[in-house]
Please model this.
Amino acid sequence: MIRRCWFDMKFAGLIKQSLVDYPNRIAAVLFTYGCNLRCPFCHNGHLLIKPSPQTSKNILIDEEEILAFIEEREGFLDALVISGGEPLLERELFYFIEKARKYNILLKIDTNGTNPEMLKTLLDAGFLDYVAMDIKAPLDYKKYAKACGGLSSELFMNIKSSIKLLLEADICVEFRTTVVPALHSNEDILEIARTIKGAERYTLQQFNPENALNVKYRNLEPYSAEHLRKAADQCRLYVDSVEVVNI
Model:
């Protein structure tokens, strides 16, 4: 069990209704500030660094406001998705979810897998119904570090631990990869699929260069949808459900 935190959680943003972030459910999506990776293709660069206390007053959303929003929509809203940034870095997350669960709502976390301890704590508590984990590259340290814009050996081991944990979890689990021409060959994608063999779901996300964190990536031409569909067909040798989506 994690140590009790006496601070309420703060959020960077809220999408009040989404039909795509939790399959077949009406969901609200929360965003957190802060991430411990710097993927060059990231399209949420504005969420990577938490605002200072001096500037955060009019930016962050208090958890009381979020919980009131969920209560008002109880019976209409099916699910709550917490994304980022990297939500599992938040010390207050466990206790926020504990409160949110009281409203008969499904909980999904989007994560980069770098905090398996928090992930296991939430899974053991029965707090999560769905986890979507990004796999940035094949589990080769150099390739993964390039895709993350830098990576410590500790974080790399954490990522591998999270994959193992989720492959054994008794909830809905989705692995997903943003496929970037400068980083991923077809063999790389197939190698990721081999790594998660037997997983319930694998999603190939089409790279969107428009707001890429690294300006050099903004000039890259994404793979075509047809290219990704062919890659998905190959991946089905290892994962039954493989989808291609735009971001």
